[in-house]
């Protein structure tokens, strides 16, 4: 080999080594701390950078993006002397690479220990119930303490979250029983409310039903009364239009008497005072018809006189003069009408007494 080539190769290798030692390419979101002869010189920014070979060297390479750090469960004692295990999640970002490299030896361990200490101070002033329901308050107090302490380390704590709070197993069982009791209570309350609403709706429905039935009965009674009123008015007009005499009216009056005691609500029955007058009118009518047929014989006159004398004191039988000219058929008709009226009165009294005896035990 030519002796001149060897020095050239050596020089080329030296140049390549110097160039490689001089040029530093820093990626995005990275920071390199440069030391010159063991002393901090500067921090390289992303891109192409030049350093002195041999004299300058890269001490630390830091990532300035937001980092997530999840700590292990730490036992913490609450105010009511219960031990709970709490997991925390820390979101932080390096703002000063020099301070993060030279102000603290291990910033992650320092943050972890500071988090545990702060948690014990915060949770120690709360009971278990407050610890479980005050996560936002705990997070805010942790962030304030950590951000203040890590500021001189070149680290900014953006957010602190409590990932889990695990009470002892006995407390978990008691809490489950309490929650189950609360759910049963709410279920019982909802069931009672449902029954109450159902009863209210049923009562409202019954009320509306009774009201509608009463209104329907009222309308039916009004219509029935109107119909009866119109029927009576039509009968009255027909009677006056046909000019009915007192004989027909008296006979219809006697026909109506047995129907007065047919109602179940009647406890007594009053005999009208016009009964004698009505029987007298009917008897007179029959007497007029018999006189128109022909004069009575002597034996018939004696019979009529005897009947008049024997029935003069009876209620409901008309008084007959001894010298009257009534026929035997008129007397028989009057006697039959009197018997029917007396039978109707007796039946009405019997029904009234039976109805009264039936209602006495129910009072």
Fold and architecture overview:
This protein is an alpha+beta fold. The chain is built from ten helices and nine strands. The chain has helices at 5-22, 97-102, 107-123, 128-133, 135-150, 169-242, 246-256, 275-293, 298-310, 328-359; strands at 23-26, 30-36, 39-44, 47-50, 56-63, 67-70, 74-77, 83-94, 155-166. The strands form three sheets. Strands 6, 7, 8 and 9 form a four-stranded antiparallel beta sheet that branches. Residues 289-331 and 358-363 have low confidence and may be disordered.
Show the helix and strand layout.
Layout: H1 5-22, E1 23-26, E2 30-36, E3 39-44, E4 47-50, E5 56-63, E6 67-70, E7 74-77, E8 83-94, H2 97-102, H3 107-123, H4 128-133, H5 135-150, E9 155-166, H6 169-242, H7 246-256, H8 275-293, H9 298-310, H10 328-359
Antiparallel strand pairs: 1-4, 2-3, 2-5, 6-8, 7-8, 8-9
Helix pairs in contact: 3-5, 7-8, 8-10
Distance between the termini: 149 Å
How many individual β-strands?
9
Strand content: 15-25%
Q: Helical element count?
A: 10
Radius of gyration, rounded? 63 Å
Record keyword descriptors for this entry.
single chain; 363 residues; alpha+beta; 4-stranded antiparallel β-sheet; 3-stranded antiparallel β-sheet; 9 strands; 58% helix; 17% strand; rod-shaped
Structure described in brief:
The protein is built from 10 helices and 9 strands.
């Amino acid at each position: 080999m030519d002796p001149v080539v060897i020095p050239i190769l050596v020089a080329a290798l030296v140049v390549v080594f110097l160039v490689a030692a001089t040029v530093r390419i820093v990626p995005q979101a990275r920071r390199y701390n440069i030391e010159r002869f063991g002393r901090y010189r500067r921090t390289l920014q992303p891109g192409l950078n030049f350093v002195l070979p041999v004299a300058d060297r890269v001490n630390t390479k830091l990532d300035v993006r937001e980092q997530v750090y999840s700590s292990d469960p730490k036992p913490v004692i609450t105010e009511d002397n219960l031990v709970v295990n709490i997991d925390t999640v820390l979101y932080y970002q390096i703002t000063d690479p020099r301070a993060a490299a030279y102000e603290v030896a291990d910033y992650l361990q320092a943050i972890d220990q500071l988090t545990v200490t702060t948690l014990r101070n915060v949770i120690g002033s709360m009971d278990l119930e407050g610890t479980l329901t005050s996560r936002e308050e705990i997070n805010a107090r942790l962030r304030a303490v950590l951000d203040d302490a890590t500021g001189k380390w070149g680290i900014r704590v953006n957010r602190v979250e409590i990932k889990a709070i695990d009470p002892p197993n006995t407390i978990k069982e008691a809490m489950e029983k309490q929650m189950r009791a609360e759910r049963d209570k709410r279920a019982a309350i909802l069931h009672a409310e449902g029954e109450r609403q159902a009863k209210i709706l049923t009562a409202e429905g019954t009320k509306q039903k009774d009201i509608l039935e009463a209104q329907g009965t009222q309308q039916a009674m009004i219509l029935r009364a109107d119909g009866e009123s119109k029927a009576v008015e039509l009968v009255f007009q027909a009677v006056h239009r046909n000019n009915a005499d007192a004989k027909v009216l008296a006979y219809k009056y006697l026909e109506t008497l047995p129907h007065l005691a047919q109602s179940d609500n009647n406890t007594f029955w009053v005999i009208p005072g016009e009964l004698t007058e009505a029987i007298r009118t009917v008897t007179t009518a029959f007497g007029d018809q018999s006189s128109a047929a022909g004069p009575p014989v002597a034996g018939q006159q004696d019979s009529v006189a005897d009947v008049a004398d024997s029935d003069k004191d009876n209620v409901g039988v008309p008084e007959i003069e001894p010298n009257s000219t009534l026929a035997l058929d008129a007397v028989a008709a009057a006697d039959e009408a009197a018997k029917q009226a007396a039978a109707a009165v007796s039946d009405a009294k019997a029904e009234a007494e039976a109805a009264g005896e039936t209602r006495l035990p129910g009072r």
